[in-house]
Write a structure and sequence with these properties.
The chain has about 500 residues and is mainly beta. It has seven helices and 37 strands.
């Protein structure tokens, strides 16, 4: 399966090894501390890996029993059974034929249930566990491990079929992505652990994914292959990556100790609700929302993220405000149908991360620009990149519609806590930012100079207000050189964080 991968707006540095050692140890990693009761943020993470829910100890009525002693029994019985068949996997290690392309190809409506201790093991020989285009397939109470999917590909639902339900399963220690996603997919109460590239890759070759639910999962220790180090700037790693998803509910998950970003929505995603999650101790940002639209990000507990990547950039002398919540060319757009027409970030607790929230827009990144790292994609307002060319791009409506814009972002009623002694930093870990670069490329770009920096800072309705800051926070506006104190940030011409408070001493 060939996938054209897109790079992020800014280059990604090589990523360090997980410090926690949680990969391979059920339930290991960061231990939660209670969030302030006034925040509304989630304080208890979904500890699925430590105590997975057991499957049925006896075969349900009408189920086809699968024998672990017979190599290839699951694939063979799937082939010989009609659609809508239920399969019950006995306890033990189930294996496929020892061929790299041996795999289970479900039929429409098939259900696969694992008994306690049922494991489908690829033995580091098989590439895929479940594949094909049959819709409405269910997997429950099954451990899937040891498969060697190639880079950019996935092990479960390899072909991104629609309507799959994956629940109470452990998908671990595979190469590539633990699972892919199709439309109407439900991913609930699973342990997605220690996979080589992603826990889940929500990507559908040649199409968009709608109505995706990711709920109550533990997503831990993924990107063991350290792909950003092997392919610097690939932007192809993390706990979960979302591509062109139209409508997603991501709630109640524990996303922690991933090498790289925790949750990353990249390229023409829309209508996300990211709520009640615990995002902690990821090497990179807890959340990146990139070249995408319309989202609600609320009631999340976000702590101890971005310390590896943020520190690495700071040690290199990079002055960019690398953030724990990073919005890159993403904003609210009323013309794109969704449950909201803005990006609403509220009632979250961010505690002792490397920096806070950065709103960024790359002036040189737009449809048909050689600097557009999103391959041949264009915005949801202009589907044909070829229209974004001179002279038309310099006039309405293409001047506005040919670029993804960080606009209509509302950041309010959040609590930001920073203790530099806990984070282990002296500078560059304390920033909140709204900024762009100086436009220079290509030579026909209508966005050269400070046009985009002025727009994102003053004209695109990006607003902080009614927040609580604890610790020595600083603020960056317009471009990386403008570092402001709280009074300057609230004052003219920026006028941010009305009715917010800052106690700089509490985090010293």
């Amino acid at each position: 399966m060939g996938i054209k991968w897109r790079n992020r707006a800014l280059p990604t540095a090589a990523l360090a090894l997980l410090a926690s050692g949680c990969v391979g140890t059920p339930g290991a990693g960061s231990q939660p501390t209670a969030a302030p009761s006034t925040s509304g943020a989630r304080s208890s993470p979904a500890k699925v890996c430590a105590k997975p829910a057991p499957g049925p100890a006896k075969a349900p009525a009408g189920a086809v029993t699968v024998d672990p002693a017979v190599v290839g029994d699951l694939a063979a019985k799937t082939r010989s059974s009609p659609p809508d068949t239920m399969f019950w996997l006995r306890p033990g290690r189930h294996r496929l034929d020892p061929d790299r392309y041996a795999q289970v190809v479900p039929k429409k409506g098939n259900r696969y249930l694992g008994a306690p201790g049922a494991v489908l093991d690829g033995g580091k020989k098989n590439q895929y566990a479940f594949s094909g285009t049959a819709p409405d397939v269910t997997l429950r109470h099954l451990t899937v491990q040891g498969f060697v999917a190639p880079h950019d590909e996935g092990v479960v639902n390899h072909d991104s079929a629609d309507g799959w339900v994956i629940e109470h399963s452990t998908i671990q220690y595979n190469s590539g992505a633990g699972l892919m996603a199709g439309a109407r997919q439900r991913v609930r109460a699973n342990c997605l652990r220690g996979n080589g590239q992603y826990g889940m890759n929500a990507y559908k070759d040649g199409g968009r994914i709608s109505a995706l639910v990711v709920e109550g999962n533990e997503i831990v220790g993924n990107n063991t292959g350290d792909w950003e180090r092997r392919r610097e700037g690939c932007g192809c790693t993390g706990g979960v990556k979302f591509w062109a998803v139209d409508g997603a509910d991501v709630r109640g998950n524990w996303v922690h100790d991933n090498r790289g970003t925790g949750l990353w929505a990249d390229t023409n995603n829309n209508d996300f609700r990211i709520e009640d999650n615990v995002l902690e101790a990821n090497d990179g940002a807890a959340l990146i929302y990139e070249t995408s639209y319309n989202a609600v990000i609320r009631k999340n507990t976000i702590r101890r993220n971005n310390r590896v990547e943020g520190r690495r950039y700071a040690d290199r002398g990079d002055g960019f405000p690398f953030a724990t919540v990073y919005l890159s060319e993403s904003g609210g757009e009323p013309r794109v149908k969704a449950r909201t027409d803005k990006i609403d970030i509220y009632r979250n607790v961010l505690e002792n991360n490397w920096s806070g929230i950065t709103l960024w827009e790359n002036a040189d990144r737009f449809c048909n620009s050689p600097a557009n790292t999103s391959s041949g994609d264009c915005t949801l307002l202009v589907r044909d990149p070829g229209r974004c060319a001179r002279p038309a791009i310099a006039t309405a409506p293409l001047y506005a519609d040919c670029r993804w814009k960080t606009q209509r972002v509302d950041i309010h009623d959040n609590r930001f806590v920073l203790d530099k002694s806990v984070v282990g930093c002296t500078a560059k870990c304390d920033r909140m930012a709204v900024l762009a670069n100086y436009g220079t490329y290509p030579d026909w770009s209508p966005y050269q100079g400070e046009r985009v920096a002025e727009a994102i800072t003053h004209k695109q309705h990006n607003r902080w207000h009614d927040n609580v800051y604890v610790g020595p926070w600083t603020f960056v506006a317009h471009d990386p050189s403008r570092v402001l104190d709280f009074g300057q940030w609230q004052g003219t011409p920026y006028e941010q964080d009305a009715d917010s408070t800052l106690d700089p001493r509490a985090g010293d």
